[in-house]
Structures are given as C-alpha cells and as structure tokens.
Amino acid sequence: MLRNTLERAEKAKKKKAALGEDVDIEKFEGEEAGEHEEIESLKELPDKYQKSLLKVGVDPSEAGRAGSFLQVDQSKVCSNCQSEAIELMGLPQALEKYDWVKDYMWNAVPVDTDKYTAKTALGEPGGYFIRSLPGTKEVFPIQACMFISDEKVAQTAHNIIIAEENSELHIITGCSTGSDVQSAMHVGVSEFYLKKGAKITFTMVHNWAEQVEVRPRTGVILDDDTTYISNYILTSPVNTIQTYPTAYCQGENSKVVFQSILGGQKDSVLDAGSRAILTGKNSSAEMITRAVSKDESQIYTRGHLAGKSPDVRGHLECMGLVLSDDSLIYSVPELEGSSTDLELSHEAAVGKIAEEEVLYLMSRGLTEDEAASMIVKGFLSMDIAGLPPELAAETKRMIDLSIQGM
Amino acid sequence: MVVRLLLEITDLAVEVNGKEILKDIDLYIDKGETHVLLGPNGSGKSTLFMAMLGFPKYRVIRGEIIFKEEDITNMTTTERVELGLGVSFQNPPAIRGVKLKDLLNIESSKKGSKPASEELDPETIALAEKLNFSDQFLERDVNLGFSGGEVKRSEILQLLAQEPDFIMFDEPDSGVDIENVELLAEEINVLLDKDKKPGLREKSGLLITHLGYILNFVGANTAHVLMDGRIACSGDPNEILEDIRKEGFKGCVECCGIH
Question: Which domain holds residue A93?
Fold first, then answer.
C-alpha cells in the first residue's frame, strides 16, 4: 500500500464516525489471516455452519451460483468460481496477481473516513476481489459470506468489486455469526467500480448475534450508462449497526437504486442510510426503505440525495411501522439541489398498522395477532426490481425467510 | 319440530362515537332463508353490518345477538367468524404485500383444519377459475388496484373458500357491470344453497342493498326496510320493492303503517 495511504490511516486511528455509537475497538481481538484452513467447496463445512449460511442466502451446495467466497474471522476459507465471465479471489491474492488493483484501493471509500476504515487498512488483510470481464453477462450470482466463528473477534474485510465495460454482475452476500458467538465486531469496506455500460446487483442479508457491532463502509463509483442496485435486508437482533453507503453517479445516465428492509428487534440500534451524489448528466437515484420496529429497538433511516447537475432525478421513500411503545423509528430524508432543472423528492410515513386492515383479516377468521403479523410481513416483503428472474425468485425466498421471525 | 332459527337479533341498539345509530332492531332469520335489507343511504345498514361483525367502534348498548343458539353479542370478530359468520364487504381495504392467494389459503385451511400450505388446493383453484380469475391475478396484493367488479368477485371467492353458514353481503352489486352481476349472483346462489329445495337449504344470508338490482338474480324470502336506525317495514320482497319504486322509501314505510 502507498505510504501516503498508511499515513492517512494512521492519523484516523482514533477518529470517531460521523454517525452511530462509538465502538471501543480495543474490546475486540483481531485474528490472524491464516488461522482457519482452506477448503475447496462450502459443502465441506460442518453442518452447523452450513445452516447459518443458508439463513443468509448463501447456499452451501453452491447450486445456481457462479462462485462462492467465504471468510471466517480473518481467514479466507473458500474461494471458487465456475464462471469464465468472472474473476473471484481474496483481495491479497488480487493485489499480488495484478499490479493495477492497488489503484482501486480507497477511491470510493476514503481510508481516513473514520477509525473503522483506518483499522481495516492497518490491520490483517481480508476481503474479496470480484471482477466481471468486459462484455460478459453472468446470470448466476457470486455468493460471498463473512462469518464470525469466535467470541470477541474483530473481523475486517476490504472488498473491491469491478464491473468492466458492458458487463453484468450479480452478488449475494450473507453475513452471520456462529451460534455460540454473542459479542463481536464486523467492519466491511466495500468499493464498487462500474465501468461504462455495466450493471451490478448486490443483495445483502445480515443475521448477526445479539451483541455484535457492525460498521460497513461502502462506496460506489458509476461511469456512463451504468446501473447499481443494492438490496439490504436485516431483521434479526444485533447490538448496533451503522452504515451509510454512498453512490457517486458521475457518469451520464448512471442510475442507482437502494432498497432496504429493516426489522428492529430486542434492543437493536439500526442506523442505516443511503446517499447518492448525482453529478453525471441525466443520472438518477431511487431509495426505498421499509422499516418495522418492535420491542425496544431503534431504527434511524437516513437518505441523502444531492443533485449537482442539470437533468438529474432522485426519489426517496421511507415507510415505517412502529409496533411497540418502547421502540422508535427516526426518518431523516435530505434533499440537496444545487443545479437547475433537477427533480428531487421524498415521501415518508411512520405510523401504526391500519386498524381497518386488521379488522378485514379478522373478518376472514384470522385472530388479531395473526392478522397483524400477516400485515407486517406483507409490508416488509417488497418486490425487488432489477434482478434476473431466477435471482428474483431466490431473493424473494431470502426475504421471506428473513421476515418470518418478525 | 326442528329448530330452524339461525339468527335472532332482539331489541338491538348500537352507538357509534357516542351517537345512537340503531334503535330497537328485531330481526329473525331461519336456516335456509335469505333476507334482504333495504334502506336509503345513512339509514344504518352498514352500522348493522359492522355491529354484526363486532367491530370495536360499533358499540352495542342494548339487546342481544343470538347466532346458532349462542350469544355472540360480546364475542370478538374472529370468534363470530369461527362460528360460521361470513361477510362480503362493499369497500374492503387494500393490503400491500398480502396476496389474494395467501388469504385464500388461510381461509380454506381454517375451514377444514387442514394445515395452511404454500400452494392452493385444486378445489380453490377451480373456484377461482369459475369466477374468471387467472393464476396471475391470485398473486396480486389483495384489493390493491382491483376494479369494482374484481373487488366483489374476490370477496365472493373468499366466501366460497370459507363456506360460512350465514353470510352478509354489503352492496354486492355496486360498481359491477351487468355481465358480472349475473356471474356474481350465480355464486351467491351457490353460497346460499339456492340450488337445493327450500326445505333442504342449510345456508342463510342477508343481502344489504339500496337499489335491489341483485334481487333480479337472487331470490329472497323476506325484505326489511331500515329507516333512521329502525326496521320500519318487513314483508314480501317483490311487494316492498314495487312500493319503493313507486313511492320512494318514505312512501313505502307509510304504506306499511308501522310508523
């Protein structure tokens, strides 16, 4: 890594994040990169791990997947790819293989963003490298899993994803913890680069243990005529999550879609936003969030649309249901227009389940609880647009599975 | 003599937001009978419908409702439905993300204590086809963007899946084109055992309508006219309809001479 980058990281080592509760990183222990043995395929994993993976949409049979990547704690445990259209490997291997990979490091996410990015840069290497080759369209997704197997582990990952010109790439990521883990920390830095005419869909399911601190840091850089679609699903209890992916729509006609399904349970604090900086001519952004808060959970849903050139469009939508008196949904939509002829809008509604709907279902024989649960699941099960049919069906299954516990 | 009485509403008074809407309602419906409830807008027809369902806003302040020899006056909506009450709403709410198919699955499973499954049973699929619903339509969110006719057909389809013993239809023909009224009427007749001889009919119904057009296709034993929260007149449906057409609701009630 460039000395300048390391110096910047060093200076940011104690820099608190702009949002979210400050996590005492020292409370957690870093693991070594070679701690866990490598395997050829996810099928070799012990049954109990396989089950955890399935819950977050990562299929250990690897059926219908272009490739699979698994990081356990800090070790790359599995990396295989059947598709000729895609290169998949650990980031350290990619840096060794290609001299140019280093030029993609820390462009979409500044290394001195906060102490979490700094720790990722300065600590043990980890994370994946995914690259779709020019002109290719692989319909099967790459599945990637970040797994924490031990108590008190601080896991970091730095992921670089590149879609070359006119290529299409689909990724499913699942993040999870072993069933005996209670407390841990995960920092995932993900940098996406979409070249002219490329498309990436990125669907992420989180299922952490109840005392895990999660700090993803994501940046997306979009060139001309590109589309980036992000789907984020979190419905299980966690200690705190703070994430605010930023898309830089620099290219003409670039388009970004962020869709999030957030279910707050127990005393989880979810702080999830998305930001789009629209500088490319005719670029557009759409953000849709469905949030449901139960128990003592707190959900902060943020959105920031910054229109900086003419003819850009953005829409932000957040719908929330507050199901308990002790929970909270705090919606913060921000629109920033600094050019003429742009169109930015937002729509937010936070409220309760409509009584009329509950009574209607009760008139069909459902109990009040059954009716409320059916309405909440319906509310969260939004249709995810932009995926190929097989992946859409798979994603629907992932969402259905995730919202079962709500 | 076998007891044929299915529903007894005696001296019922209902208030909504502190205002007494229904007063002294007496209504008796036998097994196998279909009654029709007529009345101008605002006369209390919908209030009776909602009160029969036990919706919280509709507070019974006097009287009782006996259904199948059980006092249901204080039962929850769910308990009443479990006992065999069915309803078709005039304007049911749309529920985002809840598919018509999911509802049908639950309804048919509640009836036969079958476990609810992901896929519809062949019987329900056949019913849907009879009502001109495609597989794709069943995948739609219930009532979301449905046309007037689709709403009514979906309500009837759900009732067919439920097979209740007593059904209230709130304006089943409003907003439906003529072709579809006949189709709906055909299924309403099935729901009310009209294909059986009168003495063998087990199912009963109450048709709530202010125009009475549906009566051209569904036969009724008795008609009641609701005015200002009271049943002002009861009798032969054809005669009463004729009177209403000639004299209006007010004139009809005066003819009855109850007031």
Answer: 3-403
Are the beta carbons of A365 and B55 separated by less than 8 Å? Answer: no
Edge-to-edge strand list for the sheet holding A142-148: A75-81, A67-72, A142-148, A168-177, A199-207, A227-234, A255-264, A284-293, A313-322, A343-351
Report the alpha-carbon distance of residue B169 to residue A312 in Å, rounded. 51
Quote the minimal CA–CA distance from A50 to chain B in Å: 25
Domains identified in chain B, total number = 1
Lowest mean pLDDT among A147-161, A202-216, B116-130: B116-130
Length of chain A: 406
- Cβ–Cβ contact B88 with A under 8 A: no
Contact A360/B76, CB-based, under 8 Å? Answer: no
Residue B120 has pLDDT above 90, yes or no: no
> Rounded to an integer, what distance in angstroms lies between the CA atom of residue A236 and that of residue A207?
6
Checking if the pLDDT of B3 tops 70, the result is: no
Q: Chain B residue with minimal CA distance to A366? A: B78
Is residue B230 situated within a structural domain? Answer: yes
A256 in Cβ contact with A219 (< 8 Å): no
Q: Are A189 and A115 in contact (CB under 8 A)?
A: no
CB A214 within 8 A of CB A130: no
Kindly state the average pLDDT of the residues A143-153. Answer: 95
List the CATH number of the domain containing B47.
3.40.50.300
Q: Which residue carries 């990281």 as its tokens? A: A9
A352 at B interface, C-beta within 8 A: no
Residues A57-91 have pLDDT tens digits of 899 999 999 999 999 999 999 999 999 999 999 99
Question: A365 — contact with chain B (CB < 8 Å)?
Answer: yes
Query: Does B238 map to a domain?
Result: yes
- pLDDT surpassing 60 at residue B257: no
Host domain of residue B64: 5-91+166-256
Chain B residues with beta carbon closer than 8 angstroms to that of A360: 89, 92-93, 95
Contacts of B209 by beta carbon, 8 Å cutoff, 6+ apart: B36, B37, B38, B169, B171, B172, B173, B215
The predicted-structure confidence for B164-175, as pLDDT tens digits, reads as follows 999 999 999 888
